[in-house]
Amino acid sequence: MDFINKKRMPVESKYHIFDEVTYKGEDLHVRGLLMTPRENVRRIVIYLRGGKGQVGKVRTSRLMQFADKHTLVFGPYYRGNNGSEGKDEFYGSDLNDVTEAIRILHQIYPDIAIHMIGFSRGGLQGLLTFQNLPVSSYIIWGGVSDINLMYEERIDLRGMLKRMVGHPKKDAEAYQQRNAISQITETSPPILIVHGGKDKQVGIHNAYYLAEQLDKIGATYRTYYQMSEGHVPKPFALKDTLEAIKQWMKDVEQDTLKEQYNNNK
Q1: Which entry of 48, 52, 62, 192 is 20 to 30 Å from 241 by CA?
Q2: Which residues are catalytic?
Q3: Beta bridge partner(s), residue 20
Q4: Residue range 5-145+180-264 in CATH 3.40.50.1820
Q5: 63 and 33 in contact (C-beta within 8 Å)?
Q6: What digits encode the pLDDT tens for the residues 233-263?
Q7: 14-37 per-position pLDDT tens digit
Q8: Structural domain boundaries of the chain?
Q9: Nearest by Cα to 145 from 113, 174, 184
């Protein structure tokens, strides 16, 4: 199991090599952007993009936010986007484009910690996949935690949701298949919830709802709220957010998270 093809990207970087890679997602050829350290890989970050089509697409600058010189970062485009075959199903078969990429990277780097980061639309993309993968943790950042909440708050997206998923009442089964909370257990990998209090694209009630459900389940999680920030934090706040995410990954890797969690209960 490996990537089928690698195309070197014209990105100048002292510590990383950028490739657009192609791999199999079921019977389709799908693509993603791979940022590989020139030195030894000590951490892997999977960035799950938000948006659809060209809105929120994977960019080199976004991947570079999560890296140091020993961190590999990969961002799947999802099927139907940026040269990938197939059709984006919005939390349907496109979930396989996440799981297959992680399985490939885990086989190449079997002893390296893998952290998933789901931003905006990618939040639910990750929640629906992280439990059954060889990952150390999941970070949901400004992320959708429930597709029904998305339908309720984003009136401007209802037409798209009706086309791609259906109506919540008429197509209840399709919405239930996208219910991530029901799949999370007490033993699921730990979750960091990051959200801005003034987020208008994905309201902070998505974060509150997720935290409430994780409490009921007994899952391990931590929250990082910036109440004065929107969907994307302002530069000074963004620096704090990235530091919090990297500290979280370090705590998970050093196995101090559960001790901190139990002390704070």
Answers
A1: 52
A2: 120, 231
A3: 7, 33
A4: yes
A5: yes
A6: 999 999 999 999 999 999 999 988 766 554 4
A7: 999 999 999 998 889 999 999 999
A8: 5-145+180-264
A9: 184
